[in-house]
Protein backbone atom coordinates (compact mmCIF):
# COMPACT_ATOMS: atom_id res chain seq x y z
CA UNK A 1 0.00 0.00 0.00
CA UNK A 2 2.87 2.38 0.79
CA UNK A 3 4.19 1.89 -2.75
CA UNK A 4 0.79 2.75 -4.23
CA UNK A 5 -0.18 5.75 -2.08
CA UNK A 6 2.25 8.71 -2.28
CA UNK A 7 4.10 9.25 0.99
CA UNK A 8 2.84 12.85 1.58
CA UNK A 9 -0.72 11.53 1.41
CA UNK A 10 -0.13 8.35 3.39
CA UNK A 11 1.38 10.15 6.37
CA UNK A 12 -1.56 12.51 6.90
CA UNK A 13 -3.61 11.89 10.10
CA UNK A 14 -6.54 10.29 8.31
CA UNK A 15 -7.98 8.94 11.57
CA UNK A 16 -8.88 12.58 12.29
CA UNK A 17 -9.28 14.00 8.79
CA UNK A 18 -11.88 11.48 7.60
CA UNK A 19 -14.24 12.15 10.55
CA UNK A 20 -13.60 15.89 10.12
CA UNK A 21 -14.49 15.79 6.42
CA UNK A 22 -17.63 13.80 7.23
CA UNK A 23 -18.67 16.32 9.90
CA UNK A 24 -18.12 19.34 7.64
CA UNK A 25 -20.03 17.67 4.79
CA UNK A 26 -22.89 16.81 7.15
CA UNK A 27 -22.85 20.39 8.40
CA UNK A 28 -23.12 21.64 4.81
CA UNK A 29 -26.16 19.39 4.29
CA UNK A 30 -27.81 20.83 7.41
CA UNK A 31 -27.02 24.39 6.26
CA UNK A 32 -28.46 23.53 2.83
CA UNK A 33 -31.69 22.60 4.58
CA UNK A 34 -31.59 25.67 6.85
CA UNK A 35 -31.52 27.83 3.71
CA UNK A 36 -34.70 26.19 2.42
CA UNK A 37 -32.98 23.74 0.08
CA UNK A 38 -30.38 26.10 -1.39
CA UNK A 39 -26.58 26.09 -1.30
CA UNK A 40 -26.60 29.86 -0.89
CA UNK A 41 -26.02 31.67 1.36
CA UNK A 42 -24.79 29.18 3.97
CA UNK A 43 -23.57 25.85 2.61
CA UNK A 44 -21.33 27.18 -0.18
CA UNK A 45 -19.50 29.67 2.04
CA UNK A 46 -19.23 27.01 4.77
CA UNK A 47 -17.40 24.62 2.43
CA UNK A 48 -15.27 27.41 0.95
CA UNK A 49 -14.16 28.60 4.38
CA UNK A 50 -13.30 25.07 5.41
CA UNK A 51 -11.16 24.60 2.30
CA UNK A 52 -9.33 27.86 2.95
CA UNK A 53 -8.71 27.14 6.63
CA UNK A 54 -7.74 23.52 5.91
CA UNK A 55 -5.02 24.90 3.63
CA UNK A 56 -3.95 27.17 6.48
CA UNK A 57 -3.90 24.23 8.91
CA UNK A 58 -1.80 22.18 6.48
CA UNK A 59 0.69 25.05 6.18
CA UNK A 60 0.92 25.23 9.97
CA UNK A 61 2.32 21.69 10.09
CA UNK A 62 5.53 22.98 8.48
CA UNK A 63 6.42 25.12 11.52
CA UNK A 64 9.09 23.78 13.85
CA UNK A 65 8.86 23.87 17.63
CA UNK A 66 11.60 26.50 18.27
CA UNK A 67 9.85 28.94 15.93
CA UNK A 68 6.45 28.36 17.54
CA UNK A 69 7.91 28.95 21.00
CA UNK A 70 9.68 32.08 19.77
CA UNK A 71 6.47 33.66 18.43
CA UNK A 72 4.22 32.60 21.34
CA UNK A 73 4.35 35.88 23.28
CA UNK A 74 4.41 38.12 20.16
CA UNK A 75 1.25 36.39 18.85
CA UNK A 76 -0.44 36.86 22.22
CA UNK A 77 0.62 40.52 22.25
CA UNK A 78 -0.68 41.19 18.74
CA UNK A 79 -4.07 39.66 19.52
CA UNK A 80 -4.22 41.64 22.77
CA UNK A 81 -3.61 44.86 20.82
CA UNK A 82 -6.40 43.87 18.42
CA UNK A 83 -8.74 43.39 21.39
CA UNK A 84 -7.86 46.89 22.57
CA UNK A 85 -8.51 48.20 19.07
CA UNK A 86 -11.99 46.67 19.21
CA UNK A 87 -12.76 48.88 22.21
CA UNK A 88 -11.54 51.95 20.31
CA UNK A 89 -12.73 51.46 16.73
CA UNK A 90 -14.61 48.16 16.70
CA UNK A 91 -17.78 47.66 14.68
CA UNK A 92 -21.11 47.16 16.43
CA UNK A 93 -23.37 44.21 15.68
CA UNK A 94 -26.25 42.69 17.60
CA UNK A 95 -25.72 45.11 20.49
CA UNK A 96 -22.07 44.10 20.94
CA UNK A 97 -18.77 45.63 19.85
CA UNK A 98 -16.71 42.59 18.83
CA UNK A 99 -15.43 43.06 15.28
CA UNK A 100 -12.74 44.94 13.40
CA UNK A 101 -13.45 45.98 9.81
CA UNK A 102 -10.17 45.50 7.93
CA UNK A 103 -11.24 46.26 4.39
CA UNK A 104 -12.63 43.06 2.88
CA UNK A 105 -11.95 41.17 6.13
CA UNK A 106 -14.15 41.36 9.21
CA UNK A 107 -12.14 39.98 12.13
CA UNK A 108 -13.26 38.97 15.63
CA UNK A 109 -10.04 39.16 17.70
CA UNK A 110 -11.62 37.50 20.74
CA UNK A 111 -11.81 34.26 18.74
CA UNK A 112 -8.08 34.41 18.04
CA UNK A 113 -7.37 34.88 21.74
CA UNK A 114 -8.66 31.38 22.58
CA UNK A 115 -5.73 29.55 20.94
CA UNK A 116 -3.35 32.48 21.60
CA UNK A 117 -3.73 32.26 25.39
CA UNK A 118 -3.15 28.50 25.28
CA UNK A 119 0.02 29.04 23.23
CA UNK A 120 1.33 31.73 25.60
CA UNK A 121 0.66 29.65 28.71
CA UNK A 122 2.24 26.54 27.21
CA UNK A 123 5.39 28.55 26.51
CA UNK A 124 5.27 30.12 29.97
CA UNK A 125 5.17 26.78 31.78
CA UNK A 126 7.76 25.28 29.43
CA UNK A 127 10.23 28.00 30.44
CA UNK A 128 9.31 27.98 34.16
CA UNK A 129 11.82 26.02 36.29
CA UNK A 130 10.29 22.90 37.82
CA UNK A 131 11.10 24.09 41.33
CA UNK A 132 8.84 27.15 40.93
CA UNK A 133 5.67 25.28 40.01
CA UNK A 134 4.46 25.47 43.65
CA UNK A 135 5.21 29.16 44.08
CA UNK A 136 3.36 32.37 43.24
CA UNK A 137 5.53 32.73 40.14
CA UNK A 138 3.57 29.87 38.57
CA UNK A 139 0.14 31.41 39.04
CA UNK A 140 0.34 35.23 39.15
CA UNK A 141 1.83 35.81 35.66
CA UNK A 142 -0.33 33.05 34.17
CA UNK A 143 -3.42 34.47 35.84
CA UNK A 144 -2.64 37.87 34.32
CA UNK A 145 -2.25 36.32 30.86
CA UNK A 146 -5.81 35.01 31.23
CA UNK A 147 -7.44 37.86 33.14
CA UNK A 148 -6.43 40.76 30.87
CA UNK A 149 -8.02 39.41 27.65
CA UNK A 150 -11.00 38.14 29.64
CA UNK A 151 -11.64 41.66 30.93
CA UNK A 152 -11.37 43.14 27.43
CA UNK A 153 -13.79 40.55 26.03
CA UNK A 154 -16.26 41.11 28.86
CA UNK A 155 -16.32 44.80 27.92
CA UNK A 156 -17.59 43.95 24.40
CA UNK A 157 -19.67 42.29 26.08
CA UNK A 158 -19.16 38.59 25.29
CA UNK A 159 -19.54 36.30 28.29
CA UNK A 160 -19.33 33.04 26.31
CA UNK A 161 -15.98 33.85 24.67
CA UNK A 162 -14.49 35.12 27.93
CA UNK A 163 -15.42 31.83 29.60
CA UNK A 164 -13.85 29.93 26.69
CA UNK A 165 -10.60 31.85 27.14
CA UNK A 166 -10.66 31.08 30.86
CA UNK A 167 -11.41 27.39 30.31
CA UNK A 168 -8.51 26.82 27.90
CA UNK A 169 -6.13 28.72 30.17
CA UNK A 170 -7.17 26.94 33.36
CA UNK A 171 -6.84 23.53 31.68
CA UNK A 172 -3.23 24.36 30.73
CA UNK A 173 -2.54 25.52 34.30
CA UNK A 174 -4.02 22.33 35.72
CA UNK A 175 -2.03 20.07 33.41
CA UNK A 176 1.13 22.05 34.14
CA UNK A 177 0.98 20.58 37.65
CA UNK A 178 -0.09 23.49 39.82
CA UNK A 179 -1.18 22.40 43.33
CA UNK A 180 -4.76 21.18 43.51
CA UNK A 181 -5.43 23.36 46.55
CA UNK A 182 -5.12 26.45 44.36
CA UNK A 183 -7.90 25.24 42.07
CA UNK A 184 -10.10 24.33 45.05
CA UNK A 185 -9.51 27.78 46.51
CA UNK A 186 -10.25 29.35 43.13
CA UNK A 187 -13.50 27.40 42.89
CA UNK A 188 -14.51 28.54 46.38
CA UNK A 189 -13.78 32.17 45.52
CA UNK A 190 -15.76 31.82 42.27
CA UNK A 191 -18.74 30.42 44.21
CA UNK A 192 -18.69 33.49 46.48
CA UNK A 193 -18.11 36.00 43.68
CA UNK A 194 -20.67 34.50 41.26
CA UNK A 195 -23.77 35.99 42.95
CA UNK A 196 -22.08 39.40 43.16
CA UNK A 197 -21.06 39.17 39.50
CA UNK A 198 -24.62 38.21 38.56
CA UNK A 199 -26.22 41.21 40.23
CA UNK A 200 -23.53 43.83 39.68
CA UNK A 201 -21.34 42.61 36.81
CA UNK A 202 -23.75 41.24 34.22
CA UNK A 203 -25.91 43.36 31.97
CA UNK A 204 -29.67 42.97 32.18
CA UNK A 205 -29.93 40.79 29.06
CA UNK A 206 -27.18 38.51 30.41
CA UNK A 207 -29.06 38.15 33.70
CA UNK A 208 -32.19 37.22 31.75
CA UNK A 209 -30.25 34.47 29.98
CA UNK A 210 -29.39 32.88 33.33
CA UNK A 211 -32.91 33.14 34.76
CA UNK A 212 -34.37 31.90 31.48
CA UNK A 213 -32.05 28.89 31.54
CA UNK A 214 -33.38 28.00 35.00
CA UNK A 215 -37.05 28.39 33.94
CA UNK A 216 -37.49 28.94 30.17
CA UNK A 217 -41.23 28.19 30.31
CA UNK A 218 -41.80 31.29 32.45
CA UNK A 219 -41.51 33.46 29.32
CA UNK A 220 -41.86 31.13 26.29
CA UNK A 221 -42.54 33.97 23.84
CA UNK A 222 -39.91 36.32 25.21
CA UNK A 223 -36.55 35.55 26.80
CA UNK A 224 -37.28 31.81 26.84
CA UNK A 225 -38.17 31.63 23.14
CA UNK A 226 -34.78 30.41 21.89
CA UNK A 227 -34.45 27.51 24.30
CA UNK A 228 -38.13 26.54 24.05
CA UNK A 229 -38.12 26.36 20.24
CA UNK A 230 -34.79 24.51 20.24
CA UNK A 231 -36.12 21.84 22.61
CA UNK A 232 -39.27 21.51 20.48
CA UNK A 233 -37.16 21.01 17.35
CA UNK A 234 -34.91 18.41 18.98
CA UNK A 235 -37.80 16.55 20.58
CA UNK A 236 -39.91 16.49 17.42
CA UNK A 237 -37.09 14.74 15.54
CA UNK A 238 -37.64 11.55 17.50
CA UNK A 239 -35.46 8.56 16.65
CA UNK A 240 -34.86 9.01 12.93
CA UNK A 241 -36.06 12.59 12.30
CA UNK A 242 -38.59 14.13 9.94
CA UNK A 243 -36.36 13.67 6.91
CA UNK A 244 -33.77 15.71 5.07
CA UNK A 245 -35.01 19.22 4.20
CA UNK A 246 -38.30 18.55 6.02
CA UNK A 247 -37.72 20.47 9.25
CA UNK A 248 -40.75 22.62 10.01
CA UNK A 249 -39.21 24.53 12.93
CA UNK A 250 -36.39 25.97 10.83
CA UNK A 251 -38.28 26.27 7.53
CA UNK A 252 -41.19 28.12 9.14
CA UNK A 253 -38.80 30.41 11.04
CA UNK A 254 -39.83 29.24 14.51
CA UNK A 255 -36.27 28.23 15.37
CA UNK A 256 -33.99 31.29 15.76
CA UNK A 257 -30.47 31.19 14.30
CA UNK A 258 -30.98 27.74 12.70
CA UNK A 259 -27.70 28.06 10.78
CA UNK A 260 -25.41 29.27 13.59
CA UNK A 261 -25.93 28.74 17.33
CA UNK A 262 -28.86 26.34 16.93
CA UNK A 263 -27.63 24.31 13.97
CA UNK A 264 -27.69 21.15 16.11
CA UNK A 265 -31.42 21.64 16.73
CA UNK A 266 -31.94 22.07 12.97
CA UNK A 267 -30.06 18.83 12.40
CA UNK A 268 -31.83 16.90 15.18
CA UNK A 269 -35.27 17.79 13.86
CA UNK A 270 -34.49 16.28 10.46
CA UNK A 271 -32.09 13.47 11.43
CA UNK A 272 -33.32 12.64 14.92
CA UNK A 273 -31.41 10.69 17.54
CA UNK A 274 -29.44 8.88 14.84
CA UNK A 275 -28.04 12.15 13.53
CA UNK A 276 -27.27 13.36 17.03
CA UNK A 277 -25.35 10.19 17.88
CA UNK A 278 -23.42 10.49 14.62
CA UNK A 279 -22.34 14.04 15.49
CA UNK A 280 -21.29 12.98 19.00
CA UNK A 281 -19.37 10.00 17.63
CA UNK A 282 -17.45 12.12 15.13
CA UNK A 283 -16.56 14.75 17.72
CA UNK A 284 -15.46 11.93 20.00
CA UNK A 285 -13.11 10.57 17.32
CA UNK A 286 -11.60 14.00 16.67
CA UNK A 287 -11.08 14.78 20.36
CA UNK A 288 -9.71 11.29 21.03
CA UNK A 289 -7.13 11.79 18.30
CA UNK A 290 -6.19 15.16 19.79
CA UNK A 291 -5.67 13.62 23.24
CA UNK A 292 -3.54 10.90 21.65
CA UNK A 293 -1.36 13.59 20.06
CA UNK A 294 -0.96 15.29 23.46
CA UNK A 295 -0.15 11.98 25.15
CA UNK A 296 2.53 11.09 22.59
CA UNK A 297 4.23 14.51 22.73
CA UNK A 298 7.77 14.23 24.10
CA UNK A 299 8.19 17.69 25.66
CA UNK A 300 6.24 19.83 28.11
CA UNK A 301 5.46 22.62 25.66
CA UNK A 302 3.97 20.28 23.05
CA UNK A 303 1.89 18.38 25.63
CA UNK A 304 0.40 21.53 27.14
CA UNK A 305 -0.21 23.15 23.75
CA UNK A 306 -1.95 20.07 22.33
CA UNK A 307 -4.08 19.51 25.43
CA UNK A 308 -5.09 23.18 25.49
CA UNK A 309 -6.22 23.06 21.87
CA UNK A 310 -8.28 19.93 22.55
CA UNK A 311 -9.84 21.69 25.55
CA UNK A 312 -10.74 24.70 23.37
CA UNK A 313 -12.57 22.53 20.83
CA UNK A 314 -14.24 20.55 23.64
CA UNK A 315 -15.53 23.76 25.24
CA UNK A 316 -17.18 24.81 21.98
CA UNK A 317 -18.86 21.42 21.56
CA UNK A 318 -19.95 20.91 25.17
CA UNK A 319 -21.37 24.40 25.73
CA UNK A 320 -23.20 24.52 22.38
CA UNK A 321 -24.83 21.12 22.88
CA UNK A 322 -25.80 21.94 26.47
CA UNK A 323 -27.11 25.33 25.33
CA UNK A 324 -29.41 24.02 22.59
CA UNK A 325 -30.79 21.34 24.93
CA UNK A 326 -31.53 23.81 27.72
CA UNK A 327 -28.75 22.57 30.01
CA UNK A 328 -26.79 25.86 29.89
CA UNK A 329 -27.65 29.53 29.29
CA UNK A 330 -27.64 30.80 25.70
CA UNK A 331 -24.19 32.39 25.35
CA UNK A 332 -23.67 32.45 21.59
CA UNK A 333 -21.17 29.60 21.21
CA UNK A 334 -21.42 27.97 17.73
CA UNK A 335 -20.99 24.26 17.03
CA UNK A 336 -17.54 23.59 15.51
CA UNK A 337 -17.39 22.57 11.84
CA UNK A 338 -21.20 22.63 11.48
CA UNK A 339 -22.34 26.16 12.34
CA UNK A 340 -22.09 28.84 9.68
CA UNK A 341 -19.50 31.43 10.68
CA UNK A 342 -15.99 32.34 9.64
CA UNK A 343 -14.58 33.30 13.05
CA UNK A 344 -15.46 30.04 14.79
CA UNK A 345 -14.28 28.00 11.79
CA UNK A 346 -10.98 29.87 11.84
CA UNK A 347 -10.44 29.29 15.57
CA UNK A 348 -11.22 25.60 15.46
CA UNK A 349 -9.10 25.04 12.36
CA UNK A 350 -6.20 26.81 14.11
CA UNK A 351 -6.65 24.25 16.88
CA UNK A 352 -6.73 21.41 14.34
CA UNK A 353 -3.69 22.82 12.52
CA UNK A 354 -1.78 23.08 15.80
CA UNK A 355 -2.58 19.45 16.62
CA UNK A 356 -1.49 18.37 13.13
CA UNK A 357 1.74 20.32 13.65
CA UNK A 358 2.45 18.62 16.98
CA UNK A 359 1.56 15.26 15.45
CA UNK A 360 4.27 15.91 12.86
CA UNK A 361 6.75 16.80 15.61
CA UNK A 362 5.89 13.47 17.28
CA UNK A 363 6.57 11.61 14.04
CA UNK A 364 9.91 13.36 13.67
CA UNK A 365 10.83 12.41 17.24
CA UNK A 366 10.12 8.77 16.41
CA UNK A 367 12.37 9.07 13.35
CA UNK A 368 9.53 9.08 10.82
CA UNK A 369 10.24 11.60 8.07
CA UNK A 370 7.50 14.19 7.40
Give a topology summary:
Blueprint: H1 7-10, H2 14-34, H3 43-60, H4 65-70, H5 72-89, E1 91-93, E2 96-102, E3 105-107, H6 109-127, H7 140-154, H8 159-175, H9 180-201, H10 204-214, H11 225-236, H12 248-251, H13 263-296, H14 300-324, H15 342-365
Antiparallel strand pairs: 1-2, 2-3
Helix pairs in contact: 2-3, 2-13, 3-15, 5-6, 5-7, 6-7, 6-8, 6-14, 6-15, 7-8, 8-14, 11-13, 13-14, 13-15, 14-15
Features:
370 residues, mainly alpha, 2 domains, 3-stranded antiparallel sheet, 3 strands, globular
Task: Give the tally of structural domains.
Answer: 2
Q: Show unreliable segments.
A: none
Overall geometric form: globular
Number of discrete helical segments: 15
Gyration radius, in Å: 21 Å
Quick overview of this protein structure:
By secondary structure, the chain is mostly helical. About 70% of the residues lie in helices and about 5% in strands. The protein has helices at about 5-10, 15-35, 45-60, 65-70, 70-90, 110-125, 140-155, 160-175, 180-200, 205-215, 225-235, 250, 265-295, 300-325, 340-365, and strands at about 90-95, 95-100, 105.
Amino acid sequence: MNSIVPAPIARQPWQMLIPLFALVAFGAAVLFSAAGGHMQPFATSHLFRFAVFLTMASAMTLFQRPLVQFVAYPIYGVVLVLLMAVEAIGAMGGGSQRWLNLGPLVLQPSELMKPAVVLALAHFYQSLPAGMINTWRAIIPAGALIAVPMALVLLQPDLGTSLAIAFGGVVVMFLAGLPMRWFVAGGAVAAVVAPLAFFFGLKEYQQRRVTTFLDPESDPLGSGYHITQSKIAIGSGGFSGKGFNEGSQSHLNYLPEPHTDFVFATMAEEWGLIGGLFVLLVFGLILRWGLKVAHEARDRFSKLLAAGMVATIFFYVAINLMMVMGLAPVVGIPLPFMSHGGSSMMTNMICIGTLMMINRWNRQKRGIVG
